[in-house]
Write a structure and sequence with these properties.
There is one protein chain. The protein has four helices and no strands. By secondary structure, the protein is an all-alpha fold. The longest helix has 41 residues. 83% of the residues lie in helices and 0% in strands.
Length: 103
């Protein structure tokens, strides 16, 4: 029975973390908690960026301009691409889409 219990514990740990040993499962669990906290911060920053972008768009539209400034968007795309490589471009496109607001 002890062997079965140990096997069950290892299987349940592996199911949750993918690790084969308890020490690795502990590292993975701690790192995942850190990632979850980072994701919460990133989401908060994206929401803040959306709010600031809305202020900019409102000022631009009120002054007779367009809602979107394509040359500025190209700068942002280049900045993310330079910092993160090709996937950075996709990330920037998603951020720009989120921050353009609703038409």
């Amino acid at each position: 029975m002890t062997v079965t219990s140990a096997a069950t514990e290892n299987t349940s740990g592996a199911d949750h973390t993918g690790a084969r040993i308890p020490a690795a499962a502990g590292v993975i669990t701690g790192a995942r908690e850190r990632i979850d906290a980072l994701d919460d911060r990133i989401i908060g920053l994206v929401q803040e960026r959306m709010a600031v972008s809305a202020v900019i768009q409102e000022a631009r539209i009120t002054s007779g301009g367009r809602r979107v400034n394509l040359s500025r968007e190209m700068e942002i795309l280049a900045h993310y691409r330079d910092a993160l490589g090709k996937p950075g471009t996709a990330l920037a496109m998603t951020l720009l889409e989120l921050c353009r607001g609703r038409v």
